[in-house]
Specification:
498 residues, TIM Barrel, 19 helices, 8 strands, flavoprotein
Length: 498
């Protein structure tokens, strides 16, 4: 079973500094091909040019966007499904319960024997069924068809996490390729994206090494990386480089061979998505390995994104202080060489880990100091992308569970003339989360997808544990959904009694 690990050298630093109190507040390439723009050669303007653009409007809203009618919002959801979702969201909103559950799931008591089977069965019928599409392709297909019937789409995610050797990577890429086949067997356009995790098709240690080398080249542009392909700017001036404390050794012949194998896996997956005409969305990870992930993403985008619509999408985590700056640099560089780019904008899911790593190395967290700053960054990046795609090539996926961000984005799309059902714009939420926002946006005419991991319970368990740990605040903040669910369940109960 794949598990997510902190690199040993980072873990060592964290342990050495374990006596230090970790802040809990949510409270930053020089490509060698001359045609690709380096991050050091592009001016880094503010997100809005005051002479030509206006900040996001908070007053213009499509009148049909309504979150105040739970009967209409949940009209397509069965009472049994609504009861389960309400119970699971209430349970995951209780911090101590989440802590105890995570400790129990990670303990040796549940690793073997009858108790393990009982626990897995319990998880399967509650948390797993709420947040996952199913154990295999057939289950995932049924979940997608249900979504399609109620006006939503699915982002199919083969639910494997990190790989640590080529054997694991080869196994995982078969799962991602099969996901494309599954997508083709489902109703047309019911699958909006196939998701890939680069951490599952390239060994984690190699991703860490590549990230170190890319960071060092950002510090010293004369540092040559002979294996490096054409790419886009990966870093901005404000990007964190503290992970790489000293000049790294070049890749060994064995590492270069492993890199070539990883390139071939991603190339095969990209080519299959091009043939199937299904976009491939690359998930983001923590900053220890994100530079390498961006490198793979952007080099693949240059190769496969043609015309007006991209096939390869990257992910920008807007809880990072350098998010806006990197989005601007990469967008401008791609525009200059005629490569249409697609981005998924998210807030981010590695806050605890990022804070621990930065503190262990004696640096400020790369995460915005306040939640309001994160909201502002997400909304600013959203506004920038909506204006950009309204006037040119490119696509954006707005992955948000925040009602206000959803309203602002819908208003901005209306303002810039994108309309509603527009292939350039997709809203997205996790499967089993923010149902009111998903249905509200869909009823208003926007395209909406649910992020749907699938696979055996034991394989997907790292995903579920990570969601519980990293999205603790998100789960606790699901009060809006829980309140609307209670109202609708109460209405249905009264209707059945009276």
């Amino acid at each position: 079973m794949a598990t997510r690990v902190i690199p040993p050298r980072i873990l060592k630093n964290i342990r050495q500094n374990s006596a230090t109190t970790t802040a809990t507040a949510i409270k930053s390439l020089n490509p060698i091909h001359p045609s690709i723009i380096s991050s050091t050669t592009i001016a880094q303007p503010s997100l809005y040019d005051e002479a030509n653009q206006k900040p996001p409007s908070t007053t213009v809203q499509p009148p049909s966007l309504n979150f105040n009618d739970p009967e209409k919002l949940f009209s397509s959801v069965s009472t049994s499904k609504l009861l389960r979702s309400s119970a699971v969201l209430h349970a995951t909103a209780i911090g101590p319960m989440v802590d105890i559950g995570m400790w129990f799931m990670k303990s040796k008591i549940v690793q073997t024997g009858v108790l393990k089977n009982l626990v897995m069965s319990s998880v399967k019928n509650t948390f797993y069924d709420n947040f996952c599409a199913g154990e295999d392709a057939a289950d995932a297909g049924r979940s997608i068809r249900w979504l399609n019937d109620v006006g939503l789409r699915g982002m199919l995610v083969y639910g494997v996490e990190d790989a640590h050797d080529n054997e694991g990577c080869d196994h995982n890429v078969k799962g991602f390729l099969h996901t494309v086949d599954v997508s083709l067997s489902l109703p047309h356009k019911s699958v909006s994206f196939v998701i890939v995790k680069i951490t599952a098709i390239c060994p984690m240690k190699l991703l860490e090494r590549i990230s170190d080398l890319l960071r060092w080249q950002q510090k010293d542009p004369s540092f040559i990386l002979p294996w490096k392909e054409d790419t886009l700017p990966i870093f901005a001036e404000s990007s964190p480089l503290y992970h790489t404390q000293k000049k790294p050794d070049p890749l060994t012949p064995e590492e270069e061979n492993d890199l070539e194998l990883a390139n071939k896996r991603l190339l095969e997956l990209c080519q299959k998505c091009v043939q199937a005409n299904i976009p491939l969305l690359v998930d983001a990870e923590h900053t220890t390995v994100q530079p390498a992930i961006d490198y793979f993403t952007y080099s693949s985008a240059i190769m496969h994104n043609k015309g007006d619509n991209p096939i390869v999408f990257g992910t920008i985590q807007t809880y990072l202080k350098d998010a806006k700056e990197r989005l601007l640099l990469t967008s401008k560089a791609a525009e200059k060489i005629g490569v249409p780019m697609g981005y998924k904008l998210v807030r981010g899911a590695y806050m605890s880990l990022e804070n621990k790593i930065a503190e262990s190395l004696g640096f400020a967290s790369p995460i915005h100091n306040t939640i309001d700053a994160t909201h502002k960054c997400f909304n600013d990046c959203t506004s920038f992308m909506l204006e950009k795609i309204a006037n040119g090539p490119g696509n954006v996926v707005l992955a948000t569970h925040n009602i206000e961000s959803g309203k602002l984005a819908a208003a901005k799309a209306h303002e810039v003339g994108l309309g509603k059902v527009n292939h350039k714009l997709e809203f997205a939420q996790l499967y089993g989360m923010s149902e009111a926002l998903s249905f509200g946006l869909s009823h208003a005419g926007f395209q909406v997808s649910k992020y749907m991991p699938f696979g055996p319970v034991e394989m997907v368990m790292p995903y579920l544990l990570r969601r519980a740990e990293e999205n603790r605040g998100l789960l606790a903040a699901s009060g809006f959904d829980r309140q609307l669910m209670r109202k609708e369940l109460g209405r249905r109960f009264k209707a059945s009694v009276f």
